[in-house]
């Protein structure tokens, strides 16, 4: 899947909420409607778009259609983000040290100078 398509899917808050529910277990459209407060056509549209983007799969169980998360595209995104994560990790480590020093106050800084 192209990252642009995945970003488009994840940019929409209702789709993120649906994916979060599907991360835990598979659901029917009706269950997702009840949990989201969206209309049935609205949830169905989101699911169709996410299915076309490869984020969800559907299987039949009797008369029900059960939707579940397909994690592979998210792994691809995670792989793509890895170099950026390393960049931000070092920046956040420096920020944490700076905040710790600031929280310790001037007495701690003066002690280090002695």
From TrEMBL:
Pfam families: HTH_5
InterPro entries, sorted: ArsR-like_HTH, HTH_ArsR_DNA-bd_dom, HTH_MetalResp_TranReg, WH-like_DNA-bd_sf, WH_DNA-bd_sf
Positions of the HTH arsR-type domain: 1-89
Domain of life, source organism: Bacteria
Coiled coil spans: none
Transmembrane segments: none
GO molecular function: DNA binding; DNA-binding transcription factor activity
Keyword annotations of the record: DNA-binding, Transcription, Transcription regulation
Listed PANTHER family: TRANSCRIPTIONAL REGULATOR, ARSR FAMILY, TRANSCRIPTIONAL REPRESSOR SDPR
Protein's UniProt name: Helix-turn-helix transcriptional regulator
Organism (species): Paenibacillus antri
């Amino acid at each position: 899947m192209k990252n642009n398509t995945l970003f488009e899917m994840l940019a929409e808050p209702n789709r993120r909420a649906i994916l979060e529910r599907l991360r835990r277990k598979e659901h029917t459209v009706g269950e997702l409607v009840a949990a989201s407060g969206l209309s049935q056509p609205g949830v169905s549209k989101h699911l169709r778009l996410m299915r076309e983007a490869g984020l969800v799969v559907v299987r039949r169980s009797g008369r029900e259609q059960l939707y579940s998360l397909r994690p592979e595209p998210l792994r691809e995104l995670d792989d793509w983000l890895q170099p950026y994560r390393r960049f931000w990790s070092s920046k956040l480590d420096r920020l944490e040290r700076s905040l710790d020093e600031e929280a310790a106050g001037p007495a701690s800084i003066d002690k280090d100078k002695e």
